[in-house]
Design brief:
64% helix; 354 residues; 4 domains; disordered N terminus
Amino acid sequence: MAKNAKFISEGGSSNRPPLFDGDNYYYWKDKMELFLRSQDNNMWHVLEIGEYVPLAKDSTNPKPQAEWTTTEADRVLLNTKAKLFIKSALCREEYDRIMECKTAKQIWETLQTHHEGTNSVKETRIDNGVRKFELFEMKEEETIDQMYGRFTSIINELNSLGKSYTTHERIRKILRCLPKTWRPIVTAITMAKDLTKVSLEDLIGSLKAHESVLQEDKPKSKMIALETQSGECSQKDETLCEDEESLQEDDEEELAFLSRRIQRLMTRRNQLKKNFQPKRNGAKPEVDLSKIQCYGCNQFGHYKNDCPKNKQKKSFFKKKSMMATWDDLEEAQSEDEEQEANVCLMTHSNTEEK
């Protein structure tokens, strides 16, 4: 069984051009320029000036191909080689963009215009890059290597657009972007060394040495902080779980209590409805009030609800109604229901006598 072909990473071969997938144009541009210069000394001249065309002596007319010398044929072939290298390095999307270009110079200029823009676009991008350079600062939890990586990416992008900074300007900017905790080492470097003669490698090396000294005490404090935070979080989680469980239990007890009360009321109501005589055609039966005796004052001619003595007690009952409990409400409702049942029984007996 044949083995699957392994992917050759970029930079694995000096004979293969670097791949460009549409991102980080300035990074690919620098590598591609180096690759083309390594193939032939005159290949980059083809991209800057254009395709070489042999001319006849003392005229501007091109020389016929049959009269070309070996050196002239080799220089003409450089344009084809440059086109091959550039097209081999592009992905499908970028390849479709330069398919109609005839020379290597046109291909290079098309890619440069698309990714870098025109002169006005370049100026705008340069202004944005300069603003990033001026506002650049090192973050609190960032290392020197991470900070220097972000700094060099800004510098390289500006270099690809034609804006460059000297080594002295870069060193001063790096010293200014450091946090307040680095002020002692910044003061020591500026007092002990001449910044105009210091290289970036020496500066980064001294900063990394000081960084290792600062990080000796940080792990202990971080471990203690992490332990305390983890303990606090676990305690908080336990208390929250207990509170949630207690609330759920209380809610379940209240729902069970309410459901039992409602079931009792519904059963009593259904029992009382069975004793009532159904109405016929929605008309109320006529009752002789002279034969009806009040259960409150034992007088004839009115019901207990219309009793004058009962009306005097209603005002006092309204004041106490808000303080009634479930049992009080049940007792009051049961009394009213018993009275209604008695009235219905009286009316039923009267109708039977008639």
